[in-house]
Amino acid sequence: MGGNVDARYNLGCVEVDAGNMDRALKHYMLAVGSGHATSLERIKEFFVEGEGYATKDDYTKALRSYQAYLSEIKSAQRDEAAAASQENRYY
Q: Is 0.70 surpassed by the pTM of this model?
């Protein structure tokens, strides 16, 4: 709760290495809710390439959570910065 999103992602990676895919998915889902795009990619991999590690419902929830985060942080200034440089893209 209120932790570092990169740390949450890293915990997911540790759980994958340990073979705890359910726990890894939970960590990735929490990170996605805070806008961690790489966690979204990992969940996508779990769904597309995994052996049932993530369901279609899990991936849908992750996409919606990520989209909600983007909607929450959207602003005219961020859009202007993103248009000016690829480095400033937040989506």
A: yes
